[in-house]
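Sharing a chain and its predicted structure for anyone who wants a worked example. Both blocks are below, sequence first, tokens second.
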Amino acid sequence: MTDSGEKLIALLKTLSELSGVSNFEDEVREYIRDFTAGSAAEIRETDLGGLLVLKKGRKSPKQPIVLAAGMDEAGFLVKGIESDGKLRIEAVDEAFPPSVLFGKRLKLARNGLRGVVPAKAIHLTTREERGKYPETDKLLMDISRDSDKDAEKVARVGDPVVLDAEFFELAGGRVAGKAFETRIPCSQLLTLFERELPYDTWFAFTTRTLIGSSGTTSAGRMLKPGAAVSVSVVQALDLPGVSAHERGAALGEGAGIAIRDRYAFSDRAFAREAAAAHARFFSSDVISARLYGFLEGAPQAKLLEVDTPVRHLRTPFETAALSDIESGVDLLETVVACAGEILERAPESGDETLTGTEPADGPGGKAGEGDE
């Protein structure tokens, strides 16, 4: 393994093991702030707690170029404390299938206190109980306290809860851990941040990305970019029983450009030019909504999404290939160069070629309507 590969793995391990449920991204934000402080030309913070970091390049673009990644992770909040000392928790975005949680470790992000999601032993369940799981707003966390008064000494309603999962390396240049959905994009941006770039570039580390697009919208309104790039992941479905045409993405085949996210499309001309060198396209299983956030916050911008394949999303063991993560960094460097060149060719203002993005129906049912 190369030195750069080892450095990227160490960075991803650190980011993966930080805690940052949506709206509680402080730990991740402060790590990124410290990481970038020595080389940043400017650092700003959005009204929603996002971090905007400017890296100077060889040239200044005619309009700002922004690369954006979310900092948050899927997780839970404590919604109540039972009389027997167990915590009642609910998923922040209802994204965890309950079947993957039973018997798994969780921890309170505030103090690191560990617990488990209790489950009845399989041999004690009835035929009717097997295969049935409670909704994600009716889960319990056993923290080994015997009463509510005892539990209240270490936990309180509103505390964020995250998966207690360690990062580890697998054979074949693959890695596994939690929160890869956002922490792989963050690691890619931080790795790119350390390179010499062709154009000045804003790196936006946004909040609340797993529960909507408001964090990206806030960044877009502050920076008013001419080109905005969402950096996310795509579900890798290279699994038994999934046909080749259904799998969409597979580990080891490299990062690529998403034709669309959940609610908006990448700019066609920008995508074609950025992909001309070596990128592939993804047309399905894209899960982010950051393009839509930029469409709301920076409707003048040319939009693009770059995704890296990840297997087993929303589990404690999300899996990715180091080669795909590295290819994503290289693709983003190409994208920055393409964005600067496109902006140099564009008219100063008032031309439709600056707003070639085609919106899909947004969360409210119509393109252009907000979700927050």
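Comments welcome. Residues 3-73+178-355 form a domain with the Aminopeptidase fold (CATH 3.40.630.10).
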